[in-house]
Protein 1
Amino acid sequence: CCLASAQAQTVKSDTVIHTDGNPIIRHEFTADPAAMVYKGKVYLYTGHDEAPANHNGYVMHNWTCFSSSDMVTWTEHPSPMNVKDFTWARDDAWASQVIERNGKFYWYVAVEHATIHGKAIGVGVSDSPTGPFKDARGTALVTNDMTKAVKHSWDDIDPSVIIDKDGQAYLFWGNGICYYAKLKPNMTELDGEIKTITLSHYTEAPWIHERNGWYYLSYAYEFPEKIAYAMSRNINGPWVYKGIINEIAGNSNTNHQAIINFKGKDYFIYHNGALVPDAGSFHRSVCIDYLYYNKDGTIKRVVMTSE
Ligand code: FUB
């Protein structure tokens, strides 16, 4: 019953949602959260699990966006981008992240390429954080034939982006191995070679952020996934493994985190399978819990809550 009703209630226009606990979105399944703080608001970008009941695999065709100025009341700005906006892509609106540069918003996404075998990374662009976004290139930014380190077809997924203090932008991504590369100032072309990072038990879902002169590279660890992290004083490494941030998230094999600071508090945003009991790994829901740092910059383990 509940699975069908969560799927049926997809919001079609901007709608206000009041959150009284985790999962924060309950009228639809949301996955792979990425968050951006911009002008006093948090913009939360998610994928959208649409698999039929008992379907064993991801069915994901579009991304959605939510905004909030207090982390409790969210407005949904539904589907500012669809996998069909990338004419070179077949399907699979997988994990993504948005960043602002010079008043434009760049949305890096993983999709299945229509003609080059495997997953690929594209980039959408908009003048507004809530879209609509359009394909910024007309072609993929990263394709499977550019990354030879891993032989499987889904290694080019889960983009995470950062603009360093000197203005240099970097893209991190990868399943099975963590890749990274510089981006040109236009944010739509790689600049130079694709490099790899060795991380303990790395699976996927890199999230890069900086705080007080430390760079943090958090990622999905093993499978089913925990979330672990490494720290470095330099964005080019060396990265030092620091441990687990989050345990396996309930009945979801994946966990996929974003970490932000908003109005003086730190947040760990992730997904689990808690919205509909037994719905499992392909009907996921975004949750938010507090994240705390120790004095030396290391991260305390997250306590997952339903509050
Ligand atoms: O949502 C599809 C895939 O599942 C993502 O790309 C991974 O990070 C995992 O969450």
Protein 2
Amino acid sequence: MKKVLIVTGGSRGIGAATARLAAESGYAVCISYLRDSAAASTVVDGIRRAGGEAVAFAADVSVEAEVVGLFEQVDAALGPVTALVNNAGILERHMRVEQMDAGRLTRVFATNVIGSFLCAREAVRRMSASHGGAGGAIVNLSSVASRLGSPDEYVDYAASKGAIDSFTLGLAKEVATDGIRVNAVRPGVIYTDIHASGGEPGRVDRVKAAVPMQRGGTAEEVARAVLWLLSDDAAYTTGALLDVAGGR
Ligand code: NDP
């Protein structure tokens, strides 16, 4: 059976690394992105040059109609989805709770939580054995912030990732008999652009002293854990929250 993977937010960072590794493992890959079409094209072109199959579509994961449209485009371009990585996520500038307004909280939860729900819903509708699907696997990108809290003024982000952990545990049980496995990866500090968008480009180097392994991680190191959870090697693993955090 053809393996078809959607990686949301696959134009950069952990999502791009996951898309590249998945293509090397034989997946036909769709990456979605928010606005950086040039970065998305670079990822797709690289996969194609290496002999893989890849497409990219713009879709804001927090907008229901765009998520529905994304899955319909993938149905037409690649065939039925068999795997989903809910990777798209945002980290807003660090800020104490007293300064946070509802607009910020809505943006963070809309992308990190509602986006993952909407994409998982579309995936389950297609993968579920009870709807005639062939089963599949979903991996959600959480964060160690979900269990550490976030001592450096990202309490909204930590709470959104706590919701992802609960979502993973609940959905894994709900769809276990539909042939769908649902797991989460919880990265520690990883060298990607997300820290610059959070207003702190040097954050990984600042935080790494608190990591037992004394270093930040790479996007590829996270992607390898994601690929393992998607693979048949993890056939009896569902509802797992896997830390990839250098022991933190
Ligand atoms: P990046 O900031 O490097 O990339 C984010 C990606 O998400 C981009 O492709 C971006 O698209 C896309 N995106 C953002 N908002 C939306 C949206 N509303 N709809 C669709 N796509 C969107 O992030 P990382 O690679 O660092 O993070 C990936 C995941 O890993 C996130 O969920 C993050 O919370 C989690 N994580 C990261 C850690 C880290 O230290 N880096 C640590 C723990 C967890 P575009 O390029 O078009 O803007």
